[in-house]
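Listing 4. Sequential folding, example run.
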Amino acid sequence: MNIGMTDLQNELAQQRERPSTAQREAIEGHPDASRALLERLHISDALWLNVVGQHHASVADRVALARQKPEDRLTRILGTIDRYAAMISPRKSRPGRSVTDSVRAIAGQDVDPRDEVSHTLVHSIGLCPPGTFVKLDNGDTAIVLRRSDTTNHPLVASLLDSSGTHYGEPSLYQTEDGKPRIQSALARSAVDLELDHRTMVRLGLYAARNSAGLRGLITVPGSLWRRGRFDAPRP
């Protein structure tokens, strides 16, 4: 949908200044530019082209999807996802919002069930999806590993204590058990910590099998932390 402004998106992500007049005009005109580029690439599907060309159009969000034309239905869905992705994406000029703030900005504090797209977004992504940094009510900073059977009460791994000190061994918590509770979601820019993707995957796999602790995964106390980086433990 944004193929017509790919280079501009990269520019905007790196600049600290507000978009210039020319950049704002390009942003406003990118749906038509995207459609035109797809046509030059020999895309001929009319529905595809029309949805891309109008994905910033205002479409009623309190009308049942089944009662809307295919173009309006897909425009509504695509537009919602586009806004969500823009909100969580950081730029040099501003940090990305947390997932929680982004979802609430789109859906509101109380999701209207008639707004099927926002309602589905909340229930599909949740307020704290895996990969989200969260502040716990015990002061710890943790990362969400897996969803649980209880909505918005995921399994988390504590990474930093209340003073911001790295834990030698992360602790797993089932927040659906009640303690500790998630106090708030954090934007990625609010957490000064570099995570190793492999370690997070291994933590998630371990958690799926046994959430009692991480002792079986960690071979040397503190081995997950090296030079401020959360590194994958050796097998």
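-- end of first protein; second protein begins --
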Amino acid sequence: MKPIYFLLFPMLALLSSCQNSGSPAVSAELAPVRTFREWYYPDGIILPNGTTPEQEVHGSTSRVEEFLVISNLTENDTTAKLTYYFEVDPPREVERKVPARGSTVYNRGKFPDETFPYGKLYGVKLVSPDPIMVQPTRAGSEEVPAGQLGGFHEFSTIAYPGPLGKRETKWMYADGHMSRQTATAPGISREWITILNPNPVKDAHIRITFNYVKEQQLLMLTVPAERVKTIALHDLEILKTNNAYYPVVESDVPVVVEQVRRPHNNLSRAPRSGWTLIAYPVGDVDFQIPVARYTAVRNNSRTGDTCCKHGS
């Protein structure tokens, strides 16, 4: 039994030192085990040929293709069930085969038999009986008259691994910045937060705190069960122009949160670049992350969601 004590005592000592240190710790509640069999992606869009800036949908101003790459991490063929969630429409399910050790690209053009809606924001949940990895990639190009050089943007991210639990009830990211056109700054940056609520029965009641150095602003909204919702941050009157902030997204049910940013210039509404980021889940940390408390409430005139002025 002696070797067991040699192993046990250092482990206990290590746990004790972690508990007694001043560094932030995670909640004692065990987080769900990541099995690589469940993945989420909140912000998807597909637009047809001929789309122009005047027909903009969710910041996309031209033809947009979305490619969902699924990698099979096993030596055997497997399947993946994809559940698509929309802002208004009910969910749709499809099942796909994924060959052993293969990375398979799925997009709408590869399966023309599917009645997949163009121009509608969607989120995706992927479930497989075997370990897989999922990476969505979006590509779009600005359509311009012949002979002119148009813009092109492409961005990608790793989907978020499930299952969802307490950790996914609070999310944040560090780089929030609302860049609006001024006399000295002709470039603008348009930004969205997209929230996927895959819960089959419960609506998600959301609070987003926008943390500035000297103040906080609060936005409250609801994402219905099995729906996705995007918030156009550049339309929020409560956000300051050309000021850095970081948002904290709280929910009463587990959700998945994604940030999308698209810089433009003052000559065209078409994006000159774009990037996306799955926010970081912090619902299981036991140190206090600043969130707003409010005293006055008003509706945001552009979005219809509830904006709240922070009360000190």
